[in-house]
């Protein structure tokens, strides 16, 4: 009988064998084919605790900390563990309702899943923190998490320092390879962004084994994969917090900017842009409250006008124009021009403030009196220089000089999104006037007095003063003098700030002549009322026409006259004469820096200036209109958004010159161009549609009369 | 090996390969339990002596079982044939006793507490006794196992403890009794029964996977194709068409009525849910009669596949070479529930990867084939039937247990033989193996 069914043993073996094969097949698919299980296991069991290093501190030149780190607490929650929470009590403490509670919980789950820690309420106030610590046992799953936030003890230099914010999805996409993670903080603008790699330090990661209840079992693999947090390194800047504060104070209730540079090093001592904001408003839970109103403000308080504002330099350009002519041998310092109140050579007469004879008897006197006719003539001589075949080539040479003075190009300051402003290209004139052979120096005449399409940023203006102060060279303007524990990489980074930048070689005699002329400006010229106690100084006033309203008040200067230690450029928008507003602000800043203090008289003056309200009426009206609704317009912003606004280009303050000054000979050509293209629009603004909606642009103003009225 | 002359009387004829495999398996089991219980913060050597941890307990169980094994090898083979009936009766009585004396462990009242804090699970022991009585019954000279009557008597012997197990809510243990089909098949159960069982399980799976109407179309289609292709043969013999139609009707009925009835009326809600979750579907418990009777609150239950998910993660994360001894994060984090008993295979898979699991399965396969070889070399039917019963029980446990950890089988709480933590289970398998070894040693003898 045993033999009867003996083949059945084989069948049983086959059945067993095939079942084992099926199991092996499944094991192959689980263990060899798919690696999702390994990831799932890591997600399950490895808890990565990130140790945030302290960010580096930024100091001014006297080692005063412009910003510091302080501890703030977040209320965080692991949704899966939040069972049996005394919701009513928690809502009462946080002053939210049940609905908001549920909404936040859902948000946390969406962002971080149910099993990971998510932020429920960031930046607790000290009172809230105290209340919550006492009651935390009633809220299982909730805990308090420490985090470091920036504080600004001097409430100053917001534009320069920038701010840090939690990275968002966009940021992570942009910086994919740099190891950022959700929840990290990164510099979004200003020095915080520029020196992010130095300031951020190195995150430490400790890996722990976590059991099924989320309890930490101990270090993963005895900590061999852990990394140690390395604190960020400090930045030592050339800024002077007191000068900075003074600059901001003097500019309040005004729109404008001030830049103070040390010409000997290129170090920026102060850089203010007004209206500004208190940097403390963008830290912690303050941000949520303020950012909306900052972004929608028509005066653009978060916009750094010092490096982004494009202003026609007006008469402050004249010293540079003269330098070019001197170097080209077109004039000598003794060159004089007979001005009787206007410049008529190009048809349409250009007005000059002075009409008495001899106010432009030589370069020095002409600079002191800021004679328009003189510098228009000098400009035309440069463009129509017989050395070059035509006006176009003359212009190109002239532009080369201007660019080497740092205008019309980025200087390379260590702040993100510097603007290069505008020194027009010949192409732009070719377009305006058709055939390049046909246009001549009369077409862009007012370039000679810093108008037309020429624009410059306050930083560029200050730098041009540094060039004159130094007699022909400059150091790239910068904030950071040194980095803590500088390594080779840092040295390479900073080396460009430590090397002399040459300017087209111009004789020191030419510079001396210009310096004398600018000194005369302060003695008997357009700025004669202004003083810097204890120092002789050189200056040039500017009253720049612009299409948006009143003239901009501009002032550039450096001091002391011999051995200059400080160069300043100040712009006050739509304020009027350069000597009236920008002038005293500049001299006060120089006084503060050179003497380290202000005389009592100067103090009084500074208070007066600070309280003077020069806001254009259009902006005041806007404030009035939007007083109530503005604050609730936009509640929350992405962190990046501010950065985007920061990077927007400011609309160039340019209006094309009127056609009627075009001499008869070629008027026909010009007219046809006009018909075809119409008046040139102001150069395209690069605001995105959304941002444009956010930031209401100033309304167009009626263009100013054509008469140039520079002083 | 067994015939080497210098071997003493005690081990004469004993199959050394099986003994070695037995100890290797038990050692692997202790190792796995150690991996599960290991805690780097506590001193394992001291807790080993204290016997507080599962692995140290398992070591004591193993030592105890070794003594039992030796004791069995010292016994006379005739004892097993002689005591088969009585032992079966005792087993059944013990099982009945659990309804009175039963201690509730993990929701099932199948344990009888005995001295020293140990508990005994009669259903486990009944496997041995059923194997013995089945062997005794088939080997009786008056039994003709080609007759249906004998089949039914054998089935009754097997079904009795199985039914009692179901009454104890130990579905897994009850299912194990189906493992005796191997022995019965070997002794003359018609192959058609195997085919029917296979077809039935295929139909159950198909019912779960496919839409009822689609399945009906497929079945009808298959029947139609068979009739069409064989139409010439059927012309001569019309009754075959009826046969095919009959099979079709039965299949159809199974799919349409029997399977849903089984899920809704026989199984508990959680069991149906588990089975449905195997194919990634939700089971509506409101259809379940038992849960309705219990006043079922939840209409549907989410597939509670947490166990299987974590188990698959653990095994899958092992990769090819594994995470290394004691380095499995799933194991260390205790993500897999019941990991030292039902899901013990996961710790092996995580720590030693595919190399480990494949080697391990190879060992098991070798072990089973070795047992089959032993079975086939018996002169007495009693020993052969018993051997095939052991093969069946081992195979069923291995297939179901590993199948469930890798997600091929619904979660049924049955242990992995010789590996899972647990004294009862280890003792049962030890006795099964050593009784077989004892019988094998006397394979030239004809036992009745």
Characterize the structure shown.
The complex is a heterodimer of chains A (711) and B (448). Chain A has 711 residues and is of the alpha+beta class. Among the domains of chain A are: 69-150, Alpha-Beta Complex (Penicillin-binding protein 2a (Domain 2)); 241-625, Beta-lactamase. Chain A is 38% helix and 15% strand. A five-stranded antiparallel β-sheet of chain A has the order 12-11-20-19-18, sandwiched between helices. Chain A has a three-stranded antiparallel β-sheet with strand order 1-8-9. A three-stranded mixed β-sheet of chain A has the order 2-10-16. In chain A, helix 10 crosses helix 22 (600-611) and helix 13 packs antiparallel against helix 20 (508-523). The longest helix of chain A is centred in the N-terminal third of the chain and has 27 residues, at 7-33. With 448 residues, chain B is mostly helical. Chain B has two domains: 16-189 and 331-441, no CATH class; 198-301, no CATH class. Helix content of chain B is 68%, strand content 3%. Chain B is built from 19 helices and five strands. Chain B has helices at residues 16-37, 44-50, 54-74, 77-101, 122-139, 148-167, 171-176, 181-186, 191-209, 212-229, 231-236, 238-266, 269-278, 289-293, 306-317, 329-332, 344-376, 381-405, 423-441, and strands at 103-105, 108-113, 119-120, 283-284, 300-301. In chain B, the strands form two sheets. In chain B, strands 1-2-3 form a three-stranded antiparallel β-sheet. In chain B, strand 2 and strand 3 form a beta hairpin. In chain B, helix 3 packs parallel to helix 19 (423-441), helix 4 (77-101) crosses helix 5 and helix 4 (77-101) packs across helix 6 (148-167). The longest helix of chain B is centred in the C-terminal third of the chain and has 33 residues, at 344-376. The two termini of chain B are 27 Å apart. The chains are: A alpha+beta (711), B mainly alpha (448). Chains A and B meet through helix 1 and helix 2 of A and helix 8, helix 15, helix 16, helix 17 and helix 18 of B.
